[in-house]
Amino acid sequence: MSDDILATAAAWADAGEQVALATVVETWGSSPRPAGSMLAVTASGRMAGSVSGGCIEGAVAEAARETMRTGAPQLLDFGISDERAWEVGLACGGKLKVFVEKLA
User: Residue 66 belongs to what domain range?
Assistant: First the structure.
């Protein structure tokens, strides 16, 4: 599946879209998606893949847009110790880290 996401991201970039790629790099407990899961996001709002399902996807897409604007990669940390745990959909007690980078 990650090969499909990478191919989609590459096709979008080849078509002139700005693209960021988010990858789950670490999980703990009841995490929605396993490490290695990917989400590609374009500046125009297209998305392919998944890093979590639910509200985390929106937070990751927002971070991806920021990364596309600034060029600075981000390591996002979602978990039960975060006061936003309920808001982003991790009330089940899982944790995950997502790395977001702009594709050149």
Answer: 2-102
The answer to whether the CB of 34 falls within 8 A of the CB of 40 is: no
Distance of CA 25 to the CA centre of its chain: 10
pTM assigned to the model: 0.85
Amino acid at 74: Q
Q: How many Cβ atoms are within 10 Å of 23's Cβ, its own excluded? A: 19
Q: Tokens for 3?
A: 């090969």
Answer for the pair 48, 63: CB distance below 8 angstroms, yes or no: no
CA gap 60, 16 in Å, rounded: 22
Interatomic CA distance for residues 2 and 90, integer angstroms: 23
pLDDT digits (tens, 9 = 90+) for 20-41: 999 999 988 777 788 999 999 9
Distance CA 73, CA 93 (A): 26
Tell me which residue has tokens 């991806």.
64
